[in-house]
Amino acid sequence: MASAILAVAILVAAGQQASQFTGTWTATYKGDTFARLQLRETNGVLTGRISLGNVHGDKDGVVDEVISPAVIDTPIFDVSLRDGVLRFARKDGDDTDRFELRIIGEHVELRFLITPELAADFARDGIAPPAPIRLTRT
After folding, report:
1. Of 16, 32, 43, 54, which residue is least crowded by CB atoms under 10 Å?
2. Hey, how many other C-beta atoms are within 10 angstroms of the C-beta on 86?
């Protein structure tokens, strides 16, 4: 009986954490939406879609220009929630992009997870890795 109560308590806590991430989140620069993340929860499981535009980053990897806005949504997969951090992936052609999402007050912070090989490519080309992006629930 005690183990059943504990299992229910863990599922409820996970569902409460998951529900904090649900909704539509966007990031804009000078009025152009360059990132949109849509998350929904069903029975404690998060699913969703992400759309990322083409942007330019400054020397610190912070977006300083939107070349083309976010218009094409792609499904996310490998969604996991652990210790308040939501991790997920999306396909980008033949590549798989991986992300982390953290709640920061009323916003979320989207962080691109860069492989060591991609980090080396950026360094070789003199490009800063992308800085975390702050998204607002819309």
Report:
1. 43
2. 24
Residue corresponding to tokens 């890795």: 129
pTM over 0.70: yes
- Residue 54's pLDDT band, with cuts at 50, 70 and 90, is very high
Residues 6+ apart with CB under 8 A from 110: 25, 27, 35, 37, 99, 100, 101, 132, 133, 134, 135
The 10s digit of each residue's pLDDT in 76-101 is 999 999 999 999 999 999 999 999 99
Judged by DSSP in three states, 115 sits in coil
Fold of 2-137: Lipocalin (2.40.128)
Q: Where are the domains of the chain?
A: 2-137
Distance from C-alpha of 104 to C-alpha of 23, rounded to nearest angstrom:
15
